Amino acid sequence: MSGRRFLVAAFGDAGHAFPAIGLARALAERGHDVTVETWDQWREAVEDLGLRFTAAEEYETFPPAPTGVDGVPSAADAALALLPMLEEERFDAVVSDILTLAPALAAEKAGLRWATLVPHLYPVHEPGLPFFAVGALAPRTAVGRGLWRAALPVLVDGLRRGRRDLNEARAAVGLPPIDRFHGGISEQLAIVGTYPQLEYPRQWPPHVHVVGPIGFELPYPEIDLPQGDEPLVVIAQSTAQDAEGRLLRAALEALADEPVRVLATTNRQEPDPPLGPLPANAVVVDWLNYTQAFAAADLVITHGGHGTVARALGAGVPLVCCPAVGDMTENGARVAWAGAGVMVPWRLARPRALRAAVRKVLAEPRFSARARELAAWSRDHDGPTRGAELVEDLASR
Q1: Cys bridge to 40: 55, 175, 272, 307, which one at CB 3.0-4.6 A?
Q2: How many other CB atoms sit within 10 Å of the CB of residue 160?
């Protein structure tokens, strides 16, 4: 199948925009006409791939901006602004990032097929499993599953509030209310861009497909890696969290006297105050080509953003995850559960704990062996290609 027309839309944070760009590129490589809608900061990257670009109206995603408040753009406002283009272009399908509600609302209003791209672990709750983003390991006994079921009313209360907010936005766009939770996720197709090995066992709905990571990396020159034969530890700081560089400082101190080489990146989040003198075994840069760095690494220390976790595991590298906020805690728990690394809780992310975690992962071959298993799976299951195939199937219905 070729010659279809698709819109792929995403929230502007790199963790959401990059998977959308990766999917859009895969669709274009299969002969389709693809438009990417995201924040204007990614225009050049999108157009360099030969894709069409349209700037998304920026609005508050979480917590959602109230509908109908003058001067405060909401998802409904953005949907109404997008609707004329959808009605004119008549895309064969629209793919909307899970945080990007406006294109989903506009596509439904325009009568178009639409899919949801989930660029991380699947967040919909399964009875008997921990709530998403809590960062708890899956229970191993019936008692544990029962305890999570007993706590379900707490989660349901929050889901009801989310459904109410969504129905307010739907009303503003001219759509009827819905009764189900997680109404921002398409019931036609949901593409989950993560490793199935990181997902807890569950009953999967037929329209939900775990395809493997869908990535994209901005081109960047390679750097001179630290010389030597010692294990290379890469410290990959979040692009969006920990502006003061707490993890970076703690990790540099933890490894200063260890028999390792250290390559760290601030990811253009310059710590405030500055780092000061660096350990003799460490190099710190403002940006890294992850493909180059992770190919040479023996271990990655990270806050646990899904993009970094996926890239490290795709290179067969185990992780030490120190979650700062949000779904990073969930990612760290799943890495530990899958046996591909360890998690150090944020409150314990100090030099002593980090040093012990690094020693453990480097000393026990099971961690790197498991990471290599996931890398082998990824080589045999290309996430962007599978995602593109599913979007094509949706368009042909």
Answers
A1: 55
A2: 11
Low-confidence ranges of the chain (pLDDT < 70): 1-2, 58-72
> pLDDT tens across 80-136, in order?
999 999 999 989 999 999 999 999 999 999 999 999 999 999 999 999 999 998 888
Please, are residues 231 and 320 in contact by the beta-carbon 8 Å criterion?
A: no
Rounded (5°) CA angle 153-171-102: 85
> Is the distance from CB of 9 to CB of 94 less than 8 angstroms?
yes
Q: Report pLDDT for 84.
A: 94
pLDDT of residue 252: 96
Residue-by-residue DSSP string for 19-51: HHHHHHHHHHHTT-EEEEEE-GGGHHHHHHTT-
| List of residues 6+ apart from 200 with CB closer than 8 A | 126, 129, 138, 334, 337
Q: What is the pLDDT of residue 124?
A: 95
Residue for token digits 């498991």? Answer: 370
The C-alpha torsion from 22 through 28 and 34 to 38, rounded to 10°, is 20
CA end-to-end span of the chain, whole Å? 13
